[in-house]
Amino acid sequence: MKDMHSPPPPAGPNHVAIIMDGNGRWAQQRGRPRLYGHHAGARRVREIVEACPDLGVKYLTVFAFSTENWKRTQAEVSGLMALFKRYITREAQTLIRNGICVRFIGDRMKLDETLVRLMDELELMTADNDVVNLTIALNYGGRDEVARATKRLAREVAAGRIDPETVDAETLARFLDTYVLPDPDLVIRTSGEARISNFLLWQSAYSEYEFVDTLWPDFTRDEFAKVVGRFARRERRFGAVPG
Ligand code: IPE
Ligand code: IPE
Ligand code: MG
Fold this sequence. Notes:
The chain is an alpha/beta fold. It has one domain (15-141, 183-231): Decaprenyl diphosphate synthase-like (Undecaprenyl pyrophosphate synthetase, 3-Layer(aba) Sandwich). It is built from seven helices and six strands; from the N terminus they run E-H-H-E-H-E-H-E-H-H-E-E-H. The protein has helices at 23-29, 34-55, 74-97, 113-126, 142-158, 169-173, 221-231, and strands at 15-19, 59-66, 100-105, 132-140, 186-189, 208-211. Strands 3-4-2-1-5-6 form a six-stranded parallel β-sheet, with helices on both faces. Helix 4 (113-126) links the parallel strand 3 (100-105) and strand 4. Helix 2 (34-55) packs parallel to helix 3 (74-97). The protein is globular. Residues 19-21, 63-66, 69, 193, 195, 197 line the site of one 3-methylbut-3-enyl trihydrogen diphosphate. One 3-methylbut-3-enyl trihydrogen diphosphate binds next to strand 2.
């Protein structure tokens, strides 16, 4: 039902989520180690975050490390963990200056103490910012997130604080890592792969998808603006018949 008194919703996506893929291939094409690609990829993040305000994107969520990425070589995994620490340390001041509110989603239990402390500190330092909400998915998997949420919900039920008969999709959503975030309107994956690889499974039920061939380290602000621009031409139905 349309409310005739409210202004039309903005045409652009409010929440964009990105599967930043292709760092390894980018490095390989240059005859360099995979980590070289990850460093180049990390540098792209700032440019894309800074493009958000002009495009009307209020929420940006980026997939940095999946629950399955531990299957990579120890050298790559430890290199990535070191990169995350360095990224947080080096970017903190810029993020604060630009009014970015940073949150992390994913399971922190498996991450090392120093990294978790840096993540907590960055969240605290940027908590009052509201120009853009940047969410970094680190040791994140959609199935793992739903399983962890279910465990917490089950504890509440066992303690008698939630009546199981009242549990619905909205109840479960409150236990997800993303409970404070709106669902993504647009999910972009770079590098030509057309799969979601366990990213925001629950939240992207009605998201629009864009798969682009560009490898993440080559994904520019201009291309981001183009992809975001295409979103406005899509018709979202959410299961209904358009009026
Ligand atoms: C994405 O790039 C970054 C992470 C998964 C950490 P990849 O490392 O998956 O790059 P490709 O897919 O091998 O090119
Ligand atoms: C998804 O990319 C995870 C991130 C971008 C962090 P992957 O490269 O891990 O996904 P698959 O293995 O190609 O599905
Ligand atoms: Mg990949």
